[in-house]
Amino acid sequence: MVDRVEARCSAVLLRALQRASRTAVAKFAWHGREQIGLLTVRGTAIALHDLLSPDEIRDPSPAAGPARPAWRMTRSTRPWP
């Protein structure tokens, strides 16, 4: 459960980000690794968006698989409605 000091710090940060209409850069630990993220205001909450480093980004083309087959007409015995 969040104690009063943590809640007060979060409220101060939330109000500061709302008044300035800005985002904040934050360093946080996730799965034993330090990462950099952005803190943004979403309504009455603070959202953390993690940023990827260049070595974490890969080319998506191999994961896309083979190209889809081209469209081709098929014969139908039913007339169009």
Give me the secondary-structure category. alpha+beta
Gyration radius (Cα, Å) is 24 Å
Which outline best applies?
elongated
**How much strand content do the residues show?**
25-35%
- Could you give the count of β-strands? 3
- What can be said about the biggest beta sheet? 3 strands, antiparallel
Spans of at least 5 consecutive residues with low confidence: none
Q: How much helicity do the residues have?
A: 25-40%
Q: Tell me the number of helical segments per DSSP (H or I, 4 or more residues long).
A: 2
End-to-end separation in angstroms reads 63 Å
What are the secondary-structure elements, in order, as H or E? HEEEH
Mean of the pLDDT scores?
A: 80
As laid out across the biggest beta sheet, the strand order is 1-2-3
Polypeptide structure, described:
- It is a single chain.
- The chain is α+β, with helices and mostly antiparallel strands and 81 residues long.
- The chain has a three-stranded antiparallel β-sheet with strand order 1-2-3.
- The model has no long low-confidence stretch (mean pLDDT 80).
- The chain is built from two helices and three strands; from the N terminus they run αβββα.
- Helix content is 26%, strand content 28%.
- The relative contact order is 0.12.
- The longest helix has 17 residues, at 4-20.
- It has a domain at 4-53.
- It has helices at 4-20, 61-64; strands spanning 24-30, 33-42, 45-50.
Kindly summarize this structure in a few lines:
The chain is an alpha+beta fold. Helix content is 26%, strand content 28%.
Task: List its traits.
elongated, 3 strands, alpha+beta, three-stranded antiparallel β-sheet, 81 residues
